[in-house]
Design a protein that fits this description.
Two copies of one chain form a homodimer. Chain A is an alpha/beta fold. Chain A has two domains: 7-132, NAD(P)-binding Rossmann-like Domain (Rossmann fold, 3-Layer(aba) Sandwich); 153-355, 3-Layer(aba) Sandwich (Rossmann fold), CATH 3.40.50. Chain A contains 13 helices and 14 strands. Chain A has helices spanning 21-29, 47-51, 65-68, 92-100, 117-126, 166-179, 191-197, 211-225, 243-253, 280-294, 314-328, 335-338, 341-355; strands at residues 7-10, 34-38, 61-62, 75-78, 104-107, 130-132, 153-159, 184-187, 228-231, 257-263, 268-269, 272-276, 301-308, 332-333. A six-stranded parallel sheet of chain A has the order 3-2-1-4-5-6, sandwiched between helices. A six-stranded parallel sheet of chain A has the order 8-9-7-10-13-14, with helices on both faces. A two-stranded antiparallel ribbon of chain A has the order 11-12. The longest helix of chain A has 15 residues, at 211-225. Chains A, B: Residues 153-344 form the D-glutamate N-acetyltransferase-like C-terminal domain.
Chain lengths: 356, 356
């Protein structure tokens, strides 16, 4: 995103860690300043108070777009991703106000703002840009099953469920790799990652026949230019609703290695209490098997685990990490709490061993 | 389809078994007569001669739409499904001629005829209907992971690759079940099946986030009304391009049992010579595992196999079937050659045993 942006995030009713994950992702990783967050249920607090941590200190949470305009934003980001992704009706008036005030609109909803006649007409009148980041490229590409550039390393984040840190881990690993001087890229595949990176592929909006093909095309392009490609995973292979998206990423990116992401203590798919998670070692094996159905000679492996330990004490977090390491035999951390170095080291060792 | 239709099938350059599978499916299963097939490379033959068998005896293969109009068709079906699914350029003039002659157009291409300005305008002028069977419902449904009606049996056809008989087996089993007086339905999920059934869900055109949800919705609806639901599978879980579609069907329909479909003798994915097929017992186990990732208490099983033995002598076909039975321990047949009774019996026994 251009460095002149001043961002206001629309997160009405959802400015918290879970459903507000686009908002927290933008605050954490955007290159441009977030000047306000709209959520009337937290108005008057700052973002850090609303979230109950350090992230967002000094960013005001406001009642509505009218109050947000005091902070001279240039850009309204729709930072809530409800299940299904539609535009909440109550937001239409606020979006119109933002457009009339000259703000560009960036939306990650399944409902395309630029296709809404009223909002599009308002944006055209005011000369304002609408970027629906979930709008997929208008292309039809079937996967060709081509090898990646030899010497490149494609690493996909997978997990036990949605919202287990797959984007965060991919971004943190890419940044840590670049900090070490490695030639690395982050391949964004979801609305928040695309907003942060300014490019990417909204995989959950791609027609099922072409998802693997379009993921392959971008993976090959990035692996041609970079030695390390960290691909943001989506959903989970054991998710009743989103597993096809996950499989499109697994078979499209054909990762050389994976990092597994998990919410510490979770035992069922969120929102599906009757759908228990398989044990972690089995979940890890499942993801490895799925890649190796196609890619047997490469023997793709999960080489590390990132847990979300938010809400646990430091001691509890360390215990959860140790238990996971005992259960799986894999190096484990919480990248947000303890940094990505342990996982990056595991990846470097894995490929060092594999190429020696 | 209405019983007053007289069908001409456009299969230019592709009126053969493999890429012409829409054409052969329509000839075999449509309730309405096929009065001509367009393929200039076989013009002058009848369909049976062109295909090298008994199917299509007496149906003329003609040079172009002009010649086809002699047979007084009411309906032009586009019966070729090339990889990617676009409209071949050379066909535009023939489609315009058909529209101007008052024929309705039924197309299974990814390219929507009704969205083509020139063809749509021509159809509107002439008052002709265009049915793009691959156009998905304009809905957003995330799978809810709801149980099917107790007592219903959902059977999905899976396979080692595309074009291994999954539609044919589902149709044949549904017909055989109804012939035995069972309350059965066929759930069409591809262009040919939808043309034959007159309804269905074009799963390969559905956005990845919603494929499992939309398959679940239709499965639940059919299982509420029918004791047997035979779901047409697509692709294969080990296909580099189409595996997400297959997984959407597996996790959306959550089959109680599966029939596995395979081209006798195939060892790699068609069009992907570097992508070998796992051994049949492993392929079968993979499909079972994928359902049971979600659906463990049901312990969904593959209960029979249908081989395509076309091109083999009777003795060779029987040997291929016997070898497959030895290798997998599962009842095996070629439903087109030997009928579906062996597989239907296996299903009845499987569920009889399970419910006793």
């Amino acid at each position: 995103m251009s460095p002149t942006r001043r961002i206001v995030i629309m997160a009405e009713g959802h400015f918290e860690w879970h459903y507000g994950k686009t908002a927290t992702g933008i605050i954490r990783y955007s290159q441009d300043p977030v000047v306000a967050v709209i959520d009337s249920t937290h108005a008057g607090q700052d973002a850090a108070q609303a979230l109950g941590g350090d992230l967002g200190r000094g960013i005001p949470v406001v009642q509505d777009i009218h109050e947000a305009l005091r902070y001279q934003p240039t850009t309204l980001i729709i930072g809530v991703a409800p299940i299904g992704g539609d535009l909440p009706r109550a937001w239409r008036a606020q979006l119109l106000t933002a457009i009339e005030a000259g703000l560009e609109i960036i939306s990650g909803l399944h409902y395309f703002i630029a296709d809404d006649p009223e909002l599009r007409a308002a944006a055209e009148r005011r000369g304002v840009t609408i970027w629906d980041v979930r709008r997929p490229p208008d292309k039809k590409v079937v996967a060709a099953y081509k090898p990646h550039r030899p010497g490149s390393h494609t690493v996909l984040t997978v997990g036990s469920d949605c919202a287990t840190g797959k984007m965060t881990v991919a971004i943190e690993l890419d940044r840590a790799a670049r900090a070490r001087g490695l030639n690395s890229a982050f391949f964004a595949t979801g609305q928040t990652g695309i907003m942060i990176a300014g490019r990417g592929l909204p995989v959950d909006r791609i027609i099922s026949d072409f998802i693997a093909g379009m993921v392959e095309e971008m993976t090959l392009e990035l692996a041609a230019q970079h030695d390390w490609v960290f691909v943001e995973g989506q959903g989970s292979i054991n998710h009743p609703g989103y597993s096809p998206v996950t499989l499109g990423l697994l078979h499209g990116s054909l990762p050389d290695a994976m990092i597994f992401c998990h919410q510490a203590g979770a035992t069922t798919i969120e929102g599906y209490p009757h759908c228990p998670l398989p044990p972690l070692p089995r979940l890890i094996q499942m993801n490895e098997e799925v890649v190796n159905w196609l890619h047997r000679q490469h023997n793709s492996k999960v080489v590390g685990i990132s847990l979300i330990t938010r809400g646990l004490s430091l001691q509890q977090a360390e215990e959860a990490i140790r238990r996971t390491e005992d259960e799986t035999g894999l190096p484990t951390t919480d990248v947000l709490r303890f940094g990505p170095e342990k996982l990056l080291t595991a990846l470097l060792q894995h490929f060092g061993a594999a190429t020696s």
